[in-house]
Amino acid sequence: MLVRDDLRKMEEFRRMKARRLAAHAPHDHEALSVEVRRRQAKTIAKGVHRALTSAGNVARRLLGKKETSCVRRDGALAA
Predict the structure, then answer these.
(1) Which residues have C-beta within 8 Å of that of residue 35, sequence separation ≥ 6?
(2) Measured between alpha carbons, how far is 45 from 73 in angstroms, rounded to an integer?
(3) Residue 26: inside a domain, yes or no?
(4) Cα angle, residue 45 at apex, residues 39 and 50 outer, rounded to 5°
(5) Is the separation of the CB atoms in 53 and 71 below 8 Å?
């Protein structure tokens, strides 16, 4: 029982490692798995949100408003 669990965990770890390596390899965009594309989209969205937030905070500071995030997660400006 324990041996089977250990083998299963090792196999899962091996698969996870292979998936991680595949995510960083140069690849054909048609062949990308949905999971990888979703992760890439999420990373890009986070970067865009961070940039918009800091730009919005600079604008608020210049306008003399208190410094809080004024960009919502969906990209809309929150006054």
Answers:
(1) 19
(2) 9
(3) no
(4) 130
(5) yes
Two tokens at 55?
A: 């730009």
Distance, CA of 65 to CA of 7 (rounded, Å): 58
Number of folded domains that form the chain: 1
Please give the residue range of the domain that contains residue 41: 36-79
25 vs 16: CA distance, rounded Å = 14
DSSP string, the chain: -HHHHHHHHHHHHHHHHHHHHHHHS---GGG--HHHHHHHHHHHHHHHHHHHHHHHHHHHHHHT------B-TTS-B--
Give per-residue pLDDT as tens, 11-40: 888 888 888 777 766 656 556 677 888 888
